[in-house]
């Protein structure tokens, strides 16, 4: 009995000791967490004030907003300071201060219980946020004297109250915001951007002339011609909006800048979809011509309706998603947003542009390459079949087949010109974004893109017999009578992509 009692007392004693040890751990963790969440002592001064003598030995940091306020956006998308009383839980402003040790190596940062905050927005122009978790170029350290040291940043040292400020941003935490210098603001006025914008504005009249030429010529307004007009219209709108941002982005209001960015995004994406429609129709036209000998579609109106759904619906959905992500205050900041207007009248960086622009454009370019490849393979196979059949047919039939083969070869050459003049230049744009490097190295491709309107006008208007048909319609509008160019019925739907030698010699002298 006594042994049982001793054993029970021992178990009770061990249980009591374990409970006491658990209680100590809980108290220690509570105490540690309390020390961790304790707000530091911040001594606030304004931008133009000097640090008083009692606080000169304390660490210094630049703070964008007054004490107990954080940086957020209002309903209009403008950056404002908001009082912490409106938040559900307190957010503590406590940056990590770093220092150099005796060997010159940067020591790890640490929190400080007391420091001086130079409060106010020091930026004369706009500011941008450093994101070291996205790119190593934004790696930076806050030093005890208040300066920001960025090993890969230019300049590498940023002064408090002049070059930067730090602030808590909802869903992002404590962030460093760097001021644009006056030289950075004038970058949009340099010669290269001005030259590029002038190229865009030169292309616009040629795109408009292409649309007018096709609209006044009913024989050109087949499915391919209508798609070309929509492509030129989207490209003209995109070029005008892009030229405006290149030449006068510093003078645009935030609302106008954001609106222009949405117009550029929608116009360019729609332009790529209409280019995809043209590639699909070119492939289908070649297939119809080689399989049945007839290039015209059975129901062109219905076919163009389906093409229109494909070309307009995805860009509309994409722009609606972009507007919701960028303008809705309920979307968390941790999501990838376009952030139009934060640094320019476009995406804030390539990271934001990737899901909203580069990915859909890249997929369309891959699709166009596949369509051009399929067209080339189909023409090659048809040429081989013609060569085999030519051996077993008479001379007159061979002459017709050689004429057909010549038209198909010209179709293939036009497909290649479309690919290199339109698709490849946009592909180089994607490659330049992916590869990075000096933007001047890609200036030639940018210039070709800017002058794309002239190339489109030369391919689809100045080539015969299209220019003869357009000139005939112009003469009719002017009231001048003339003979209508003769084009074989089987060639009419190929006018937009073939250089047909079916016009009499008298008409070629026009």
TrEMBL record:
Which parts pass through the membrane? Answer: 193-216, 228-249, 261-283, 304-325, 356-380, 411-434, 440-462
Q: Which CDD domains match?
A: 7tmB3_Methuselah-like (cd15039)
Where does the record place it? Membrane
Q: Which InterPro entries match?
A: GPCR_2-like_7TM (IPR017981), GPCR_2_secretin-like (IPR000832), GPCR_Mth-like (IPR052808)
UniProt entry keywords in alphabetical sequence: Membrane, Receptor, Signal, Transmembrane, Transmembrane helix
Q: What GO terms in the biological process aspect are recorded for it?
A: cell surface receptor signaling pathway
Signal sequence extent: 1-34
Q: How does the protein's chain sit in the membrane according to the entry?
A: Multi-pass membrane protein
Q: Which Pfam families match?
A: 7tm_2
Chief location of this protein within or outside the cell: membrane
Q: What is this protein called?
A: G-protein coupled receptor Mth2 isoform X1
Please name the source species: Fopius arisanus
This chain is encoded by the gene named mth2_5
